[in-house]
């Protein structure tokens, strides 16, 4: 909503500032309270970027009559982001063997500062229509998604894929430790996961040209949900299967963002895109504590199996609704409006 009302550039400048402060606060936290505040700041930064970056990219390409290149550049953007995180995760893991744990976090905050300058220097692309009030922007985007079966069902499919990678990220430490590895090696395994996910983002446009959208919309959520089961076996050779949710997310996101962007009006695009992340955020708040408690009480295998089944069932219902709506192509059946689509 901030990106749509005040501008994508404003949202990304604020997100960069908050991220830098969050890293430093996390690294220098004297107690649990400051640590929790740092976590909240990370979430705020992510929320400020959510939808704003994709909308900025789409609007900029659209203004230069290059909107058809959106999936390629969005996929490469995700690949560079995830790949960089993967490489620096290795550096951070190695640093903790020789320096205090706070150093990598403070260094991350320092390395985030250039993003503030880069975001500040961006130019806001032109948008059609008048900007609505802050609350009207949110209400209009929610109405648009709820009244459009293709939009809410595709958002649920993206949310399922995001939920799978979120669950994977939260259980990767016990999975790696279950392989008999020391805790400091977890960072290496996370880095491998991120680098493989980055590869998925880099080739997402190629995959999209070879695989129809209707297959991507069921394949990525299903593969991501089922891949979680590989983490319950304590067999290290199944680790490549366990980290597939990262690949699925990076392959699907550019195509989902394009699908939504073409159906959302300029003044609501960032909010509509980010509603999928909002949905998975709410679901995460509810499910992750339950999953964690269940693993403590019942063990990793039965809880992850149940989680995989629930995600697969949710994806199946959402895909059935999306398919029945009949809007299966990248380009919308009708011009984007503020009411319904498909």
In words, what does this structure look like?
With 342 residues, the chain is mainly alpha-helical. It has a domain at 70-105 and 144-325: MFS general substrate transporter like domains (Growth Hormone, Chain: A), CATH 1.20.1250. The protein is 76% helix and 0% strand. The protein is built from 15 helices and no strands. The protein has helices spanning 2-6, 8-28, 32-49, 52-63, 70-95, 102-120, 134-146, 149-178, 186-202, 204-210, 213-227, 239-242, 244-261, 269-298, 300-325. α14 (269-298) packs antiparallel against α15 (300-325). The relative contact order is 0.15. The model is unreliable at 335-342 (pLDDT under 50).
Key structural traits:
single chain, 342 residues, mainly alpha, Growth Hormone, Chain: A, 15 helices, disordered C terminus
Condensed summary:
With 342 residues, the chain is an all-alpha fold. The protein has helices at residues 2-6, 8-28, 32-49, 52-63, 70-95, 102-120, 134-146, 149-178, 186-202, 204-210, 213-227, 239-242, 244-261, 269-298, 300-325.
- Overall shape: it is globular
Multimerization status: single chain
Architecture (CATH level 2) name of the domain at 70-105 and 144-325: Up-down Bundle
Number of strands: 0
The succession of helices and strands, N to C, reads HHHHHHHHHHHHHHH
Overall average residue pLDDT: 89
Beta-strand portion reads under 5%
CATH fold call of the domain at 70-105 and 144-325: Growth Hormone, Chain: A
State the CATH class of the domain at 70-105 and 144-325. Answer: Mainly Alpha
Taking Cα atoms only, what radius of gyration do you get, to the nearest Å?
Answer: 20 Å
Largest sheet: none
Helix share bin: over 70%
Low-confidence stretches: 335-342
| Fourth CATH level, the homologous superfamily of the domain at 70-105 and 144-325 | MFS general substrate transporter like domains
How far apart the termini lie comes to 24 Å
């Amino acid at each position: 909503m901030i990106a749509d009302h005040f501008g994508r550039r404003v949202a990304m400048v604020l997100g960069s500032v908050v991220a830098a402060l969050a890293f430093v606060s996390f690294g220098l936290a004297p107690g649990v309270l400051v640590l929790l505040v740092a976590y909240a700041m990370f979430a705020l930064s992510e929320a400020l970027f959510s939808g704003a970056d994709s909308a900025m990219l789409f609007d900029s390409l659209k203004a230069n009559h290059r909107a058809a290149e959106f999936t390629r550049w969005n996929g490469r953007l995700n690949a560079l982001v995830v790949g960089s995180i993967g490489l620096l995760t290795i550096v951070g893991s190695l640093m903790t063997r020789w320096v205090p744990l706070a150093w990598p976090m403070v260094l991350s905050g320092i390395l985030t500062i250039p993003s503030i300058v880069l975001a500040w220097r961006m130019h806001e692309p032109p948008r059609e229509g008048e900007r609505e009030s802050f609350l009207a922007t949110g209400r209009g985007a929610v109405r648009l998604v709820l009244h459009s079966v293709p939009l809410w069902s595709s958002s649920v499919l993206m949310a399922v894929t995001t939920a799978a990678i979120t669950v994977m990220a939260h259980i990767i430490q016990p999975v790696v430790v279950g392989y008999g590895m020391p805790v400091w090696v977890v960072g290496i395994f996370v880095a491998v996961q991120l680098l493989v996910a980055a590869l998925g983002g880099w080739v997402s446009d190629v995959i999209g040209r070879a695989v129809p959208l209707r297959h991507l919309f069921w394949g990525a959520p299903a593969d991501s949900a089922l891949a979680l089961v590989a983490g319950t076996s304590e067999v290290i050779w199944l680790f490549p299967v366990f980290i597939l949710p990262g690949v699925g997310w990076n392959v699907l996101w550019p195509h989902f963002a394009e699908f939504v962007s073409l159906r959302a009006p300029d003044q609501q695009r960032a909010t509509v895109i980010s509603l999928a992340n909002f949905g998975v955020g709410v679901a995460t708040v509810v499910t992750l504590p339950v999953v964690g408690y269940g693993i403590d009480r019942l063990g990793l295998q039965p809880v992850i199996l149940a989680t995989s089944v629930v995600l697969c069932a949710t994806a199946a219902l959402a895909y059935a609704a999306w398919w029945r709506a009949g809007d299966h192509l990248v380009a919308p059946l009708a011009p984007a409006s503020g009411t319904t689509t498909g």
